Amino acid sequence: MLYNMPKLSVVPTPIGNLKDITLRALEVLKQVDLIICEDTRVTLKLLQHFEIDPPKLLSYHVANEHKKIKALTNQIQQHEWTALVSDAGTPGISDPGYTIIHTCIENNIPVEVLPGPVAFIPALVGSGLPMQRFYFEGFLPHQKGRKKRLEFLSKLKGTTIVFYESPYRIMKLLKEIIEIWGENIKVSVSRELTKMHEETIRGTALETLIYFTTQGAVKGEFIVLIYNE
C-alpha cells in the first residue's frame, strides 16, 4: 500500500490491440489494492495476459452504476489505492464510470486520470476531415429524441461531428445523415480499430452507404465522422 488516504486512478485499457496499453497503466494495475471493472471476466483476462496477480475485483456497468455507487464508494474509501477500468478504452467516454469519478471528487477522494486508448481519437486523426474544431456526440438516442438531436447537430457549422454507432444501426445512421445533410456530405467511417480487420471508409455519405450495403452483416463498434461545413 502506497498511500495514507484513498485514491482513485482511472486507467484506460486497450480497445483491441493489447500492445496499446501503457507502461504506466501496467504499473498501476500491478500495485492497486482494488480494481473496479465493467466485467470482471474481461479484466481478469487482461491481467492474466500481462501476468499481473489480480487484486480484489468489483464489477459495475451502465445498468447498475447508480444503484451500486454507495457500496462502491465505501469500498474505495476502505482501500488505499483503487483503479477504475472499463472493458475497453477510457472509462466515462461512452462507457460507465462518470458516476464513480464524480462521487469520488464530491467526497474529496483524489482522482488521477491516466492517458491512453480511446476509439474516437485515431478515427478522427485518420479521417482526413478538419480537426481544428470537432464535436463528440457519441451514441445517439435509439428512438426518442434522435431526429431532434441530429437537427441540432446540423447547425454546428465548420465542425467535424463524431458519432459512435453499433453494427445494428449503422445503416440507419448513414440514411439519417443523407436525409439531414444530403448525400454528398463528406463522411469517414471506421470500425474494428487496432484489430486485425480494422477498416476506414472515406467518401460521400451515399458512397459509404452503398459500400456497407454490399458488405452484408458487419461487426464491430463504428465511429462515424462528418464535416458540417
What does it look like?
The chain is of the alpha/beta class. It folds into 2 domains: 106 residues, 3-Layer(aba) Sandwich (Cobalt-precorrin-4 Transmethylase, domain 1); 109 residues, Methyltransferase, Cobalt-precorrin-4 Transmethylase, Domain 2. It is 34% helix and 21% strand. The protein contains 8 helices and 10 strands. Helix 3 crosses helix 4. The longest helix has 14 residues. It starts with 7 loop residues before the first strand and ends with a strand.
Number of helices: 8
**Percentage of β-strand residues:** 15-25%
Describe the global form.
elongated
Report the top-level CATH class of the largest domain: Alpha Beta
Taking all residues together, what is the mean pLDDT?
94
How many beta-strand runs?
10
Largest sheet: 5 strands, parallel
State the domain count.
Answer: 2
Which architecture of the largest domain per CATH? 2-Layer Sandwich
What keywords describe this structure?
229 residues, alpha/beta, Cobalt-precorrin-4 Transmethylase, domain 1, Methyltransferase, Cobalt-precorrin-4 Transmethylase, Domain 2, 2 domains, 5-stranded mixed beta sheet, 10 strands, elongated
